[in-house]
């Protein structure tokens, strides 16, 4: 019994560690990718400490209207998210060492990691003033009074549905198994877990992703460059961070960005994102 349980324990621990490392690696690549767009002449070996110190001080300066954030603001935000996530990973490793796999295996499904990640993002956004003020103007609910908004939502839903059907069933570039694993639906055992799963995947995650990718990254790039650059880069990064669903997620990112472009609000994107994730997550639960 003991000899059979060791490989399973090691395998599970390696899986969790690799998953945390993967998301951390993706976010680090995100930083590198963003900073490749910047002229590095602003920061050199002699003044980087002063630059970082000045950035941190500016982050907590008096409240002001911010038309656009800077690369430094973006770097600090991502660094804070990664730092807190890595700290959480450290505590997770310690918990494994103290309590073992049996005590934690039921607590570490993918949707719990999504909730943790969303909590980290929320803390950083609320604590970091430049970004907090930057996203204050993206919550325009008045767009829901326009009939055009619902037409855009319908068109966007059709585009996402057709593209996913083609990727899964015609070209076979992606698989339903990858989608199920990406959404973290494996291992649901009771109704409570199913409710938490739907809450995290279909509601909390869409809000978090729309704030980060459309509310911050897309708008930052559009104000600094142009629409084409902003929609391509923000959507591609969105796709990369969805692992094996690169093509589908990139197309979804483009649809959500177009919704923001047409309405100047992330509310329609959040609605479509929630509806789509809700349909997919329910179908995953039913198929178990």
From TrEMBL:
GO molecular function term, any single one = endopeptidase activity
Q: Where are the transmembrane segments?
A: 12-35, 74-99, 111-128, 149-171, 227-260, 266-286
Q: Which InterPro entries match?
A: CAAX_protease, Rce1/LyrA-like_dom
Q: Give a GO biological-process term.
A: proteolysis
The alphabetical list of record keywords is: Hydrolase, Membrane, Protease, Transmembrane, Transmembrane helix
Q: Does the keyword Manganese apply?
A: no
Residue span, CAAX prenyl protease 2/Lysostaphin resistance protein A-like domain = 193-279
Name by which UniProt lists this protein: CAAX amino terminal protease family protein
Q: Native species of this protein?
A: Bacillus cereus (strain ATCC 10987 / NRS 248)
